[in-house]
Amino acid sequence: MTDNTTPSWQHLLDLVTQLDSGSYDSAFVAYGNISVQLSRSGALAAPVATAPAPAPAPAPASTSPAATSPEPSETIIPSPMIGVFYRCPSPGAPPFVELGARVEPDTTVGIVEVMKLMNPVTAGVDGTLTSFLVKDNEQVEYGQALAVVSEVGTP
């Protein structure tokens, strides 16, 4: 890299490419006010604040503690990454699944867009989709509760 305290996007992309081709399960690299955290398994630690950011917007009413605390027979579907959540594969198309629909672990319930890349969000369990906790086209954070599934064999 250069002597600057902030790496260029190309430097970061080169670093990600090098780490991706390595045999690491996870990696964390910090340089100046930028940090990169990668994981092959998708299990990352809590996000790390790397640079001063504007004050966060107030939390929407849909993410109240009661809405994100599932019953014992329910499972929260978390966002796998920061991005924009969409319930439909494209504008004007029907949603991947409707509320009340039966889902399986590999059922796609939505997508999270990050830098024009669409990443599927799957149910992860067998059950019935009981609610969405975020709106379509809403900015989401890593680990944020997106939806609730009532698991099979429960009311």
Largest sheet: 4 strands, antiparallel
**Shape label:** elongated
**Total of domains:** 2
Distance between the termini: 57 Å
Sequence of secondary-structure elements = HEEHEEEEEEEE
By CATH, the topology of the largest domain is OB fold (Dihydrolipoamide Acetyltransferase, E2P)
Percent helix, as a range, is 10-25%
Oligomer: single chain
Instruction: Tell me the strand order in the biggest sheet.
Output: 3-10-8-5
| Class by alpha and beta content | mainly beta
CATH secondary-structure class of the largest domain = Mainly Beta
The CATH level-2 architecture of the largest domain is identified as: Beta Barrel
Radius of gyration: 18 Å
Overall number of strands: 10
Task: Offer a few descriptive terms.
2 helices; OB fold (Dihydrolipoamide Acetyltransferase, E2P); 2 domains; elongated; 4-stranded antiparallel beta sheet; mainly beta
Can you put this structure into words, describing what you see?
It is built from two helices and ten strands; from the N terminus they run H-E-E-H-E-E-E-E-E-E-E-E. With 155 residues, it is mostly beta strands. The strands form three sheets. Strands 3-10-8-5 form a four-stranded antiparallel beta sheet, with no helix packed on it. Strand 6 and strand 7 form a beta hairpin. The longest helix has 13 residues.
